[in-house]
Amino acid sequence: MPTTPAVTKDLADQTSPADGTGPADRSGHSVVRTLLRLWPYVRPVRARLFTAAFVAVVASCTGLVIPLVLKWLVDGPVADRDPRGVWLGALYLLLLGIAEALLFGLRRWLVARPLAGVEAAMRADLYRHLQRLPVAFHDRWASGQLLSRATTDLMLLRMFLAFPLTFLLVNGVTILVGVIIMLVQEWTLGLVILIPAVPVMIFCWLFEKRYSAVARRAQDQVGDLTTLVEESVLGIRVIKGFGRHRSQARAFRDLSRTLRGTELVKARLLAMIWAIFTLPELAIGVALVLGTMQVADGQLSAGTLVAFLSTALALRWPVDSIGFLLTMSQEAATATERYFEVMDAEPESADAAVDTRPVGRAAGGEDREGRQGRDGEGGEGGEGGEGGLRFHGVAFRYPDAPADAPPVLERVDLHIRAGETMALVGATGTGKTTLTALVPRLHEVTDGRITLDGEDITAMPREELRALVAVAFEEPTLFSASVGENVLMGAEDTAGEGELARALAVAQADFAHALPQGTDTQVGEQGLSLSGGQRQRLALARAVVGRPRFLVLDDPLSALDVHTEALVEAALRRVLAETTALVVAHRPSTVLLADRVALLSGGRIAAVGTHHELLRTNAEYAHLMSGADEDPAALSGAGEDPLSRAQEKTALAGAKEDDR
Ligand SMILES: Nc1ncnc2c1ncn2[C@@H]1O[C@H](COP(=O)(O)OP(=O)(O)OP(=O)(O)O)[C@@H](O)[C@H]1O
Asked: Where is this region: Disordered (predicted)?
């Protein structure tokens, strides 16, 4: 069994990004290069974005005409005491102001809809990609890290495209035009205004490096915090049950404090950049003093000084805003990087072109068959006895397992004949769940091959393979949907009420009809509103609803009470008779559903035979089954299936006999 989610994980692990990436990994990636990766998403709306940027530049430059009108007004009508001229000047100023406001409004309208579309497209791509990523990826990544990428990071990107992207350009052009106007008005004063540009640029360059590292850290910490909150909500029963709310609250506080610390560092850096942008303001002050002196000396007209200073003041916002536009761009670059870390992860490999010869005829296959002979296999099924489900020298190691750890599965050779039910028994942690996960290719074998009716599973499209093989896991996951929708997930889209009713009957899940809205009843997140046994029966119904040719069940009866277990067993017997099945079993009652039993031990199949044969001949198996003695379900035998109960008790007695 893989480890269950959330609270079982070490909290220490949650505090560091699960992906192990960090600011250090960005070295060499300039903000611009990183942001350029957004181009494929921006491309479809580029016409609107460019138009919006152009409109914003025109709006901003319209604002710069105002000082020129002021100059004309001061040196002309005001100096000549011409009231008509003053009114006319005021009218020009009003019209310019209205034009500027309208143009900025138009820009906003132009970008709003397409940018919402860009965000939606990126989110849809991320979701689609997450669905295609292998299980190994999801094992490695904390869910909160993925959630924060799909929410906070994408929101940062939309804000960047809507605002800083345009305004870095608009403000750049406005500053350039403004400076040219000022130099034309009075070049000496213009040079004074330009002096701070050099230190400001050096500071921006240094700032980018420091801010990018802090921004990355903060966004990763938001991901960690999201993980913790999500796990606390999902694992609320465990937290309450074990009285862990204090330690959980402490972990939350620690993470929040760390995030707060990082945000404060960000705020300090922001304060520094705001401070450095006071230099241009100082320059304006100096220019005002020098300009006034020049007017007093008669070297400069009052109108020119007014125009010069109002241009300088009009440039205040474009200059001041550069600091926070840069920080927003920096955060957007970090968000882009985090987004593409997921998007760049390799999805489940394309279906490999492999040797699809039936294995019985391949050289390696014959060798392995020879070794399997003692299990009394072959002869049934498809070509050369290759019918059914067959493991050929299968080895598997988890990609993230420590280098010195032995592989979970070393060499598994096993043949489940067509129509046969094979129980898989083994001590806890021997790799039973892992082996079952290899059949629908939730993980890829490290070595060897698995065949279904002689065909290598890697040669089949995954969709086809997963239509052939149905799976029910020990931990039954139900989605926030109706009972019917949850069950019919295991069938073709065309399946309807008939199939649903049959599957519910087989899985002894008829309780669903008695729910408030029958099979239309919504089950809560993860089906938490149902009992463990009810969820397990619905998961079982989902596995059988599509009448799969191959069925893989991971201890499907573990959460059932004795009475229900007996009922489900009886129904399952009918289903199993029609399919080829591999059933992970811990209890004799489940083992007795199978035609034969395979014992998994030390990464290999140590023995195959009927339950009774193995009880007599294999001490490890007998020991495992005698452990079930303590299982009240195995002993109570509440009269639902007298034959199997009697067999079970005899078997257990036999096992004890053998042990002695
Ligand atoms: N995602 C994973 N990454 C690394 N190791 C894993 C992973 N999942 C399981 N393992 C390890 O693989 C081994 C086999 O686990 P598996 O869940 O297959 O055992 P099992 O026989 O099904 O156990 P049980 O009977 O308790 O359900 C265990 O040592 C486990 O720690």
From this structure: 1-27, 347-386, 630-660
